[in-house]
Amino acid sequence: MDIVLVPGFWLDASSWDAVTPPLVAAGHRVHPLTLPGLESVDASRSGIGLREHIDAVVAVVDSLEGPVVLVGHSGGGAIIYGVTDARPNRIARAIYVDSGPLGEGESINDELPADGDDVPLPAWELFEDADLIDLDEGLRAAFRARAIPEPRGVAQDAMQLHDERRLAVPTTIIACEFTAAQVTEWLAAGAPFLAELARVGDAEYVDLPTGHWPQFTKPAELAAAILAAVDRG
């Protein structure tokens, strides 16, 4: 199976380095991505928005043969949902790592502080405590050293969706800073921020207790959760 790994904000393909070996060892073809504007700190992020990131992943899917599994971490979840909308017949499963589908007209996070075309990694104080579970001082320093500003448009642009066949794509939510039970409760209560997920016809919820960056804090467990989801798919 071809597995496409889409990083969250401020990260490039190398953020998956500790996750990919078990996937490759299991016989899968793994494609960790660096999205436009994330090539380096000095890269231009002018004119790069959510659609450009979705289109970049669609191009990778189109370059592959057969079904594809998409994995999206954090803001990358919105991007893979846009890809399932664009290519619903090509996606065997969409796996959201501490993230989920983004609905029509919604943005990933338009409250992040921007500096021109850039959204730099904020100070840790701006994150919630749950985000930072298991992200010790060494991991925080390594993350900040590798962080690349996110294109402002990716954070702020409104999602545009076109094909409701995306709702039939098998979906896995890997719940980290929240639990699978909480997701089920929020869905039952009609939580507005889960309105799009509530429309997905085939969704499962898997616990991986840690903070918002399991590829750094629990990479082996994240790889196992991805493999289990792929096997079920």
UniProtKB/TrEMBL annotation:
What is the name of the protein in this document? Esterase
Please list the residue ranges annotated as the AB hydrolase-1 domain: 3-225
Coiled-coil positions: none
What domain of life does the UniProt record list for this protein's source? Bacteria
One Gene Ontology term of the molecular function aspect: catalytic activity
